[in-house]
Amino acid sequence: MVDWFGRRTLFLVSEGLTCTSLFAMSACLYMKDHYPDTAQMLDWLPLTTLILFIASYSIGVGPLPWLLTNEIIPANFRGPGSSLAASANWTMSFVVTKVFVDMRVTLSCAGTFVVFGGFCFLGFLFGLFFLPETKGKTPEMIQAHFGVLRLKH
After folding, report:
1. Would 25 be classed as within a structural domain?
2. pTM of the model
3. Mean pLDDT, rounded, for 34-39
4. pLDDT score, position 72
């Protein structure tokens, strides 16, 4: 799928669908708390939004950063840069896991999913404005996009 659709397109679709599914989950949880009769008629929606989130995360937001990291980072910084990116990824996964319960208590379940959906929206904007398409491009072309100068000795 990555080679067929392109990395950027797949990332944007994935990020947009994860964002949409989290906002929809938030709406479901809000309705459950404030409009239980309506929520009961839509009892299929939370599972549907969860399935949409997992599927959309799996096609782009989950795996693509690992691929793009190696394509975007300059060769002379690839080792430390990949380590830094992996550390940031796992640190943020830990933070999300650690703060979820506290956020749920403080913001409610619906509010927590709004916050996470907002972060997905920021990720979508990042992909839209800053993430280049790297499909079929040489490392030199990718580095030129970022304006990286190569020093020759």
Report:
1. yes
2. 0.87
3. 92
4. 86
